[in-house]
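Re-run with default settings, no changes from the original entry. Doing this only to confirm the output is reproducible before filing.
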Amino acid sequence: MTLVALTGIPGTGKSTICNILRGNNFRCYEALQICGSNECMEGNEVDIDCLSSLWARRDEEDVIVASHYSHLLGADFVIILERDPELVEKSLLARGYSSEKIFENMDSLYSDIIYQESLDLLPSIRICRIMNKEGKPAETAEAIMKVALNIFSGNASKL
């Protein structure tokens, strides 16, 4: 099985892109949905070890898991979805995030924590960044599909 993490801070469009990928016959799962149905939650916190072991037992091939923590699940490759910081902040405000939570997420964006955490687990050649352009999720999904197809077909060197 090849596990590709589609990750990025909240508000970058992971759920939207995952829906488009599913509509194009990709196996794309949102990790939070899996957690709730598999007891990998402790209160409001995800148990990363529980979820990682769950994914390690899957026999399904070529899977994409979308979440702001999917890069921590033992992925073979990571695709970091990025978005203009102003648009991320607007998205988080629209979701009703507290100012503290918005600050925390924006700090994560500016400190590039997801890339750093991914780099702790994988070599840089297995980490890809894709910008989610405003109003163009289909184009973003198309770029991710091309990357995923190269990964799944064993042509990851073409990334």
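The chain has a mean pLDDT of 89. The chain has seven helices and seven strands.
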